[in-house]
Specification:
Elements (H helix, E strand, L loop, with lengths): L2 E5 L2 E3 L5 E8 L6 E8 L6 E6 L5 E3 L7 E6 L4 E6 L8 E9 L5 E3 L3 E5 L2
Parallel strand pairs: 2-11
Antiparallel strand pairs: 1-3, 3-8, 4-5, 4-9, 5-6, 7-8, 9-10, 9-11
């Protein structure tokens, strides 16, 4: 059974940092593109960042220059380092895995990030 479990969310002041983690199990991690998405209240889910098996990264416009995605294939974990957070970054952050062979998508349940003073 595939499981993606996000952690690391919480309340942070504007300008602060958080590191999100997504622990994966139930599939071959090295067969997955990994990504982070987010959904703010009343808005559609938005792409944040992705990383290929080989480590190539891509970022959404809101994340460029402030966020960094990484993965540890030995730990079956993907990370999202978020710096210089803004109130507009407040959202539920979701981990996504997409199988490179089958295109099967799996999602975590999300972790809430609140940026507020």
């Amino acid at each position: 059974q595939v499981q993606l479990v996000e952690s690391g969310g919480g309340l942070v002041q504007p300008g602060g940092s958080l590191r999100l983690s997504c622990a994966a199990s139930g599939f071959i991690f090295s067969d997955q593109y990994m990504a982070w998405y987010r959904q703010a209240p009343g808005k559609e889910r938005e792409f944040v960042a992705s990383i290929t098996i080989g480590g190539r990264v891509n970022y959404g416009s809101s994340a460029k220059g402030r966020f960094a995605i990484s993965r540890d294939n030995a730990k079956n974990t993907v990370y999202l380092q978020m710096n210089n957070l803004e109130p507009e970054d407040t959202a539920v952050y979701y981990c996504n895995a997409r199988n490179v062979f089958t295109d099967k998508n799996d999602w975590g349940k999300g972790t809430l990030v609140t940026v507020s003073s």
